Structure formats: C-alpha cells, structure tokens
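Minutes, project check-in

Agenda point 3 was the complex the collaborators sent over. CS summarized: two entities, 656 residues total, and the question is how they sit relative to each other. Sequences were read into the notes so everyone works from the same version.
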Amino acid sequence: MSASTAHSVVDAKPWTRHLSSALVILYALITILPLVWIFMTGFKTPQDSISYPPKVVFEPSLEGYVNLFTTRSRQTPEYMATLPPPDNWAEALVRDRNMVIAGPSKFGERFLNSVIIGFGSTFLSVFLGTLAAYAFSRFKIPLKDDLMFFILSTRMMPPIAVAIPIFLMYRSVGLSDTHLGMILLYTAVNISLAVWLLKGFIDEIPLEYEEAALIDGYSRLQAFIKVVLPQAATGIAATAIFCLIFSWNEYAFALLLTSGTAQTAPPFIPTIIGEGGLDWPAVAAGATLFLIPIVAFTILLRKHLLRGITFGAVRK
Amino acid sequence: MAEVCLSGVTKRFDETTAVDRMDLTVADGEFVVLLGPTGAGKTTTLRLVAGLEKADQGRIEIAGRDVTTASPTVRDVSFVFQQYSLYPHLTVFDNLAFPLRSPARRVPEPEIRERVNAIAEMLRIPDKLQNKATQLSGGEMQRVAIGRALVRAPQIYLMDEPLSSLDAKLRADMRIELKRIQKDLGATLLYVTHDQIEAMTMANRIGVIDQGKLIQVGAPREIYEDPHNVYVATRLGQPAINLIPRDLIPAGVAPAGTATIGARTEHIRIRKVAENTAQGKVQWIEHLGDQNHLHITVGDRKVTTLVEPDTDLSVDDGVSLELIKPLYFDGAGERLRAGT
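CS then shared the predicted structure for the full assembly.
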C-alpha cells in the first residue's frame, strides 16, 4: 500500500490523534503541576512561600536549601556587629536574617539512609523475586498455586495493620532503627509484588531458549544467567522501579521504627521547623532533592520499560 | 560422530503414550529420518535422545555410553528446533557462537570467529551476522538455527522439521545442501519430518512412526516398494497410493485373506476403451505441466493415476485398468505377500 493512502483501517483519524494528544498533555500538566509548585517553593523565601495570593513570579532565593542543610541560631544585632565578614554566600544569606550557621543539619545523613535502605531493599527484593519467580515458572513445585496465593496474601491488608507487632518484634530482636531492619521490612513487603510481576515476565519467555542452551552445553544456572536474565531485563527493570518507589517513599513504618541512625528522609523532611512554623522552602527543597534519585533511576531504566516484549525469534 | 541406540524406550505424558517401546539404532555417519504425522511421537523421540525428556522405560546409548538419565549438557548432541529458538537478545554471530562459547567447551575466540564465518558462508547469511536474531526473515532464522547446530561437531545432530518454514525453492536447495553437508562431515543425523520428499531424498534409512510406535524402518526405496502395512504404504507416494477393495479391478492372484489392494499411481496401466467394455470413467484431469493426474471413477470408488502430458484421454472417456505389482493387505491393513 502506498504511503499516501490515508484511510487505513488501523491508522487513527487525524482528529482522534489530536484529541488524544490534547488529553495526554492535559493529564501531564495536571500531574506535573504539584511538582512544579514544590520545585518553585524550594527557591522562594519563607515570606513568599506563604504569601496570599500565591506568588507565581518571585525573586529566587537559595534560603530554603541553606536552611535544609544547616542548623542556625538567632543572635542579637549587637553580637552580629562584632562578627567578622561572612566567608561564604550561605553565611551571608543567613546573617541577613540576624542568624548564624551553627552546624550541618541531619538531612545529608537521612538522605544517605534513604539511599542505602531504598536501593538495598530493592536489590534484595528483585534478586530473591527473580529466583523465586523462575522457580515458580519452571519447576514442578508442590502446592504451587497455594504458595503463590500465600505470597500474594501478604498484600491483602494495609502493611500498617501489622505495624504494632512488627514494632514489638523489632524491639525485642534489636532491629529497631537499624538499616538491616528497614531493608528486611521493605523487602518483605515488596517481595510479593516482585515474585508476581516477575513470574509473569518469565512465563512469557519460551522454554525452548533454555532447552537450546542446555543442549549448547550450558548448565541450568548458566542458561538462566545467559539466556533468561537478558530476556527478563524488561521485567526486572519494571519490578525494580516499583520496588524502589515503594521503599523510597514509605513513610509510616519509617516514622514508627526509625528515629536516629536509620531514619530515612520521608519522616525527616516534615520535621524541618523554622521560626514560627514549618519552613516551607526548606521542606520543598528537601522534597525536590528527594525526588532526584528516583527520577534518575526511572530514566536510566526507561529504555527497558519502553522496549516492550521481545518477539519473533520463536515461531508460535 | 557416534552410533546412537534406543532400546525399548517408552515415554508417557499422563495418559497418552508418546513413544512406545521404541527400538532404533542410528549408525555412525547415518542419516535417519523419522516420518510420521503430527502427534506421532517424532519430536518426543528427538527430545528423549537430546535429554530434554526423561524416558519412563528403556535405555538410550550414545557412542556406547548409557545416557538414559544424563542431562542434555553432557550428552554432546545438537538440536535444531522447529521453532528456531534463536536467542532474541543476541546477534546472529553471537547466536552461532553460543554453543562454542559454552563454559564446557572453551573454544578460543579466533577459532570461534573462523568457524562462525565458515558456517555463515555455507548457509549464505554472511551479511546478516551483525543483525539481531529478531531482524531476520523466517527462512534466515531457520538457517541460523541449522547453523547453530552445524557449528560444532557433536555425537549426533537432531533436527526437528528444520525446513518446514522455508519456501519451496529454498527448501529444495537446503535439502540438497543438508544432505551434502551430512555426507561431507560424515555426520550422524536423526531428522524428523512429516514431508515424504525430505524423507525420500535425504535419508539413508526412514523410520515410519505412528502413535509412538516405529512401524517400519528401512531404506527409502524399501519403504516405498515394500511397505509392511497400509499405513506405511500411504505415508509415501504423491499422489497417495490407491487403496481399492479386492475384486474391483483384476489384480493377479490375490493371496487368501486379501481385503484391500494397494496400487501406486505408476502401477496402474490405463487404456482407452469403448464405453460398453470400460471398467471406469475419466472424471477429471489435473494438468501439472510435466505430468497429468488422472482421476478415474471405478464403480463408486475413485482412483488416481498419472498419465503423460500429451495424453489423448479426456473427461468422460471409458478406460480399462490393469494393476502391475499390486500390494495385498488383509482386513487389518497388514501386508500379505504373494505366495504365502
């Protein structure tokens, strides 16, 4: 058929395409607006951030970011006058408010905790999930369906319903406020999702590839690594993103089970209190920075998400 | 290359017996074709030899070694799957190199390159080596699948309908090519097909298989000319053998117990006769160019035979039929030999 034939039965009509584009753009705007607002608030001064009507055009300031990373103390003008000139821009910014920087805040530590716990539990969930899903997909396992249901049943109640038992359990075994404890907890929550998602993806990979690899002189484990894993990459990437999003954003357990060493960023950010209430620019700055790793991770793995299902090399 | 020997091999899937007490020996350097319809147990037989299925009973030996329970990895066979099973995440080159790169073999990389290039040349796909396996036509995929088997020298090549998805021209070429390669390499080859032409042209011996049982094994001519029963007789010959009830057409002295007479198309002599003495009537003539298929009605039966392209017969002509070398079968379809 020539390219000029516009009336293919499968091609959408022009107005349908315009309408769907418009809807997608509208949806994108609605979802992205709160993010844009948070991003903008991070660069406002505290006064601008709570002004009414809200300011869309404002003079950007880094005060939120400085407040996020520092603790400050208010001083008398007399004392301020005795200080030598500020040795950096952050110090100067703080002194304009009649304050001095007392030290770094805990945000860096909390952020690092989030990275360790988020990525650690994601790796563990996907690693264990892939092995379990492969076993469920390929081997004859007694009570397979019951086991799969049992795994899924851990998702049938809100996780917070078991918060108290877990809190008591963790306290008695010494896992409270530890990285390992949080990694294990998030892995336990994520693994049901990982097994179910990955089993679906691995089921789609025809058995013939592994049989071919076995005949080509590879052991089952080698065939799994060389043949199954590359083809399950799409599914593994998608699963990893879902697991990371959950453990990265998890708030309730983190609030309950961590307080110091292992506290993640989500329960920490809202506690950034300035003078006379919440320091909204600092909270927004924290939220903005908190978004970056997960956005970067998703963009890195996007190729796999979009690649779709491999097809064609096995004739059905 | 080595001898492969199956003795009393049985494989059941739940209630169905896919392979039933199979005895088959593929001699070193021999090309054996298993011929049978879909579901006859051909593929299962191959998978049993490869070790992809475990036999319920019986014994499988490769090169004198009992491999009945051995894993595919250690059996040293190669397999061409009907569904190609090319690794979709690898290029054609890497697909062909995959068996050589196995940790069990450790072929040095320069040698791998040499052998892959030689195979690609032989299969006429050297320009496709850098393509992803998914970016090939069906015929190219099938050639890569064959190449992946040929790239190394295993104890036996197992091929499951490897030519089934090629177009007619390529299939004819590949038939000759595959036979030539097998001869040159002195390869032992067990080949499964439902295509009688592939069986006739390539096999040293054909094994006709039905419902998991090996019905008859023999050289192609032997199977064609001397079938043990009706089933084997109908597997070969195009158009298929005519099965005529006894006494419909005079056919020499039939042995006692004959129920059916088998007449291959080339074994029916046709003469044009006057309507009142005719045994049959020409119903239809198919002109194929090099030959004609003549469809004749004899009473209420149909008989198909071949005639020369320049035949003077036409539709509704009366004909008389004479059978040469008829095959006699009893009521159960078993062959009855003349004089017994």
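Noted in discussion: The interface with chain A takes residues 50-52, 71-73, 75-79, 81-89, 98-99, 102-105, 133-134, 138, 141, 148, 165 of chain B (CB under 8 Å).
Follow-up: revisit at the next meeting once the mutant set is ready.
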